[in-house]
Amino acid sequence: MIILGIDPGYATLGFGVIKKETNSLVPIEYGIVTTPKDESLPVRLAMIDEKITRLLEKHKPNAVALEELFFAANVKTGIQVAQARGVVTVCAIKACGNLFEYTPLQVKQALTGNGRADKHQIQFMTKAILGLNEIPRPDDAADALAVAICHANTNDYSKRYFN
To answer: Fewer CB near the last or first residue (10 Å), C or N of the chain?
Structure first.
């Protein structure tokens, strides 16, 4: 099973593609999608649509795992991130139909067993679980991989994909 994990954003959006095999998780690709801050929000959203659509076409994931939003301080930024998240949501549903959403607490719990784990613990576990030589950079990509791992460890599709 191929899983595309997304850490939503409109300036920087993290993505991570992993393959769930019978007894392991294998990293395929990870990185970020960036948009120029001198562009208008609608143009940036169109850029995100284009880049996410290309990722979906390239990897043909069986599932897309998307981190739910958590923001407390800047409502304007939160609304813009929510709009970018909406673009990703539509792209995912159109491309594969299997969209799953996880809160930051659920991601932390799935990777470390502790819903209050800090960023360093999540990055360390992402590196360890995927057998990487170093912590994935930038942070947005590491967060997206963590969301994909959360999905792989939370949902058992082995009967559907491995029989």
So the answer is: C
